[in-house]
Amino acid sequence: MKKKRGISRRKFLIGSAAGGATLLAGSYLRPNSWAAKPKAPEAVKLTPTLCDGCGNWCAINVYTKGDRVWKAEGNLIAGNNVGRICAKGHALLHEAYNPDRIKSPLKRVGPNKFEPISWEQAFKEIGEKTRQISEKHGPESLFWLHYPEGNAALAQRFMTALGSPNVFSHGSTCFLPRNIGWWLTTGSSKPEHDFENTRFMLFIGRNPAAGLQLRQLKDMAAGRDRGARMVVVDPRFSEAASMGHQWIRIRPGTDLALMLAIAHVMIKEGTYQKDFVEKYTQGFEEFASQVEQYTPEWAEEKTSIPRDTIVNLAREMAAAAPRAVIHRGYHGAMGTQYKNSLQLVRAVACVNGLLGNFNQLGGLFEPPKVKLGSLDKERFPAPPKVDGPMVDGSTDPERYPLTPKGHGLTHAIPELAIEGKLKAGFVYHNNPLRTNPNPARVIEGYKKLELLVSFDYVLSETASVAHYILPESYYLERDDVVHSNHCYKSKQVAIRQAVIKPLYDTKPLFHILREMAPHLGIGKYFTCTLDEYNEALLAPLGVTLERLKKEGLIDLGGEWKPGEPKFSTPSEKLEFVSSTLRDLNLPAMPAWEEPLVVPNRTDPHSFRLIHGKQAHQTHARTVNQSYLKEITLVNDLGRVWIHPDRAKALNVRDGDCMTISSSVGKGRARARVTDGIHPECVFLPSGYGVFSRNLKTGFGYGISYNDFLPTYFEPVLGHTMSGEIIVRIEKT
């Protein structure tokens, strides 16, 4: 046997200690004889700014030592994070120094081959190519895709100037049914929750402890500590479930049945808030007649939740009303996951109406809004309006009458490119090759484009197939547009500003568009500076840009107070029967609708695949960060959850490798065998499955649910239905 060379870490430490003792004992050591010359202390500077770890844009104070980022603290008065920062916020401070960063504009010269070019060359060539495509195929062949937080108005101005209506966001893969369902019922797309003063909180397919909103999480804990009961309905034992008093395991895709049965119980037993319903709602009698058929016994068959559990849940909520609240939802069951998600959101809003909790202490409320100003059109002319429909049909009233302009159906882009209807695209703060269903088809579509421009700071999957990459400065290196989405119970306005100078030849998006615009023939619409733009936004608020930069975030007052509810629906009431839906000849009341797909319950290999967030990862954006990846590795968080009974039938033990396949994809993952999952499904954490070799930390770890998701279009809104996945599982 060959003798092993080298030393172990333990031996190294022991040896180091012994060596240190010997040196310390040596008579030749004298005070200061080995001391380094003292260094002058580095100057510490605090800069208030906004995090970019997710869509919350938490207000933070970043400290630098010399010219390097040192640490960050939360802004104590910020409505959405109240002085707190999550793991992502801390870890992403280091991304400025990520060796994978793009250091200058790049031009693709071959498959996955790029050469550095100057900004001037990039702008000139992109301008020429864009104008050629627009002249030949029309401006409707151009599109913009982004994560809309912060720069939505800027992107809209850019595309309008080019003559194109095609501005897409991630809405059809995330929150679309949630927003529309609440808007149809109450006139507000995103009500807030007074969790700290509630007596009962219910979460339906929502996990705020992983899909983090720090203020919300703090208030949930405060309400619970004050005696509020917390119940979580979820197919798996989520992080939020671990905080609650009760976890109710539900068959995936059947949350709607539970809500209809709860409404049935409250109306039948007369425990709903009668005064509220009589004064502030429309269509109650029709709704009551509708839900009469949805008994707890019926719901037990649909949901696998025992009848008595359903009845007790309805009674507990009713007893706590109006200080009882059901969470508004996000990307989960009330987001873009199921065919019946829109109906579910409507049902949740209606049950909140039965609880009478709108604008009440411990209930739901409309957060105060900040109305920003706009550019003076005399000084800075606006581009002519574009009235044409979006190329995906999302603004066509005959196809998708409820899908709002400015969101579009992101997952339609690949097919439209293959069909030749889209020829050129600009992708900002988005990575559709990772976040859209059926990646193989997405890749095929994006490669068909004659021009693809990415604004990424690393070579993501989408950037890797782009023709040009115009690297945006990292968020710690740039000033940005004024931000007004920090409102919770009072009005707030905030700003992102540079903490350090750009380390490489990069630019903020505002400057990129301003400098590129003349090459596209639209320069006259981009003559203002960023400061002039921000001053125009702030003008109605009586806040100077100088003050905002100094403070980072300013509370404008206008605090929410409980009182009489107001609804911005056509009837100016909460609508159990939606007048908008009725006018469109669509189902006007929540009614049971089966999920699109159902696993074969007689086949031991057949499962529904569900997915969800982890608190330390955001979308497809953060898995390449080394500290966050370490959290995943140390805690072995990339595994697929499977119920012990189903695992036993497949001879799968904890840690075994499984092969997962669907009609569009195949992959492997290790099993986490646990009672914390419904037997009819498996759970896959989202965010993993990096396949860009340029992202060295994240590459090759885990799989993505999108790998298994066919390209669906929900009939009413067109969203992805990302929970409608049936997979086959076998032991590898």
TrEMBL record:
**PROSITE patterns from the entry?**
4FE4S_MOW_BIS_MGD, TAT
Where it mainly occurs, coarsely classed, is: other
CDD domains referenced in this protein's UniProt entry, alphabetically: MopB_CT_Thiosulfate-R-like
The compartments listed are: Cell envelope
4Fe-4S Mo/W bis-MGD-type domain ranges (all copies): 44-100
What keywords sit in the KW lines?
Answer: 4Fe-4S, Iron, Iron-sulfur, Metal-binding, Molybdenum, Oxidoreductase, Signal
* UniProt xrefs under PANTHER family: TETRATHIONATE REDUCTASE SUBUNIT A, TRIMETHYLAMINE-N-OXIDE REDUCTASE
According to the record's subunit comment, the protein's assembly and interactions are: Heterodimer of a large and a small subunit.
Q: Which family does it belong to?
A: Belongs to the prokaryotic molybdopterin-containing oxidoreductase family.
What name is this protein filed under?
Molybdopterin-dependent oxidoreductase
